[in-house]
Structures are given as structure tokens and as C-alpha cells.
Amino acid sequence: MARICVFCGSRSGNLGEFAAAAELLGVCFAKSGHTLVYGGGSTGIMGILADAVLRNGGNVIGIIPRHLARPDLMHHGVADMRITVDMHERKALMHSLADAYLALPGGYGTLEELFEAVTWAQLEIHTRQVAVLNICGLFNGLVTMLDQMTEQGFLSLNCRRHLQVFTSTTQVLDWATSLATAR
């Protein structure tokens, strides 16, 4: 099955739908045999997602930089926890393990990781698929901005297609299953 690198927040956000989607996605990843590759945190969307995968017998690989590998942040239930020197090494290791990238709700870090993955696809550094799960329209502004950048000639249509947008966990699971069968 596919190893999906998920970028997501260390906070849960203000809407219960964010946590509910992360929980459902984690359950579905585990039941479908997909491996979660993520930032190693125990809080927020990260923790909810990892907890759901683990509770349902799924595989989780956590990757956390040394300065965040503290008892209050690091997920202690993840057996395969890898501690890196810094954020650069963290992202390089995540990349080496991932079959695809998915962003869930999060903040600056989530966006930075998402944009690095999609930029690398644009530059043909990798051929992995990159997607966001647009829960409750959180990424609507981002999608509008990317569409405007395409209309104004800053992104080609081909480059714009590097970022897929899903609005349901069902769509994400269909996508993940197609990744696994294409391997």
C-alpha cells in the first residue's frame, strides 16, 4: 500500500470538523493498509491523525527534529519515531519515505511543507502526487490564489495541476488506493 506523507497542524483549529476528518482519515488509512508518514507530534491534527491510525492497527512513521523531540510534543505511541538534526533533515527523510503528499489543516509549517513538495514536483525533482484535503473550505483562499496566479501567467496549467484538491476523505482514500495500485 501507499506511504502517504501528511503535513498538518500541531493545533486542532476551531472547528470540530477538522479533528473529525483527521480521525476518519486515520481510521481509513489503517484499514486500507496505508502507512502514515508525518511530523511526529502528539498534539493537534497531527496527534489526532496518528492516534487514529495506531488505535486501528495501522503503520505510522514519525519524523521529528531534535529540538521538538520533547515529552510535551513528541508522540510516544509511535514505535517508528525518527529524530533528525533539524527541519531540513526532517523534510529530506519524509521525502525519501513518501509515495505522495497530503496537506490537512495547519499553519505556516503545513503550508511551507506543502509548497516545497509541490515546487519540487514543478521542478521535476520528484514525480509524486501532492494534494490537500479542503475541510470546511479552509483552503478555498489558497485555491483561488493559485487559480489567479494561473490566469495571470505566473503558473502554467501544467504546474497548477501539480496540486490536487479534495473535499472529502472518500476522495483521498480513492486517490491513495490509486497510488498504491500504480506502484
**Count of beta strands:** 7
The strands making up the biggest β-sheet line up spatially as 4-3-2-1-5-6-7
Number of domains: 1
- Provide the succession of SSEs: EHEHEEHEHEHHEH
Distance between the termini: 8 Å
- Cα-based radius of gyration, to the nearest Å: 15 Å
Sheet-strand content, in percent, reads 15-25%
The description of the largest β-sheet is: 7 strands, parallel
Number of helices: 7
Output the CATH class name: Alpha Beta
Mean pLDDT: 95
Level of helix content? 40-55%
- What is the CATH fold-level name? Rossmann fold
Which class of secondary structure composition applies to the elements? alpha/beta
CATH architecture verdict: 3-Layer(aba) Sandwich
Shape: globular
Give start-end ranges of low-pLDDT stretches. Answer: none
What does this structure look like?
The protein is an alpha/beta fold. It has a single domain, classed as Rossmann fold (3-Layer(aba) Sandwich). 46% of the residues lie in helices and 19% in strands. The chain contains 7 helices and 7 strands; from the N terminus they run E-H-E-H-E-E-H-E-H-E-H-H-E-H. It has a 7-stranded parallel beta sheet with strand order 4-3-2-1-5-6-7, with helices on both faces. Strand 1 (3-7), helix 1 (16-32) and strand 2 (35-38) form a beta-alpha-beta unit. Helix 1 (16-32) runs parallel beside helix 2. The mean pLDDT is 95.
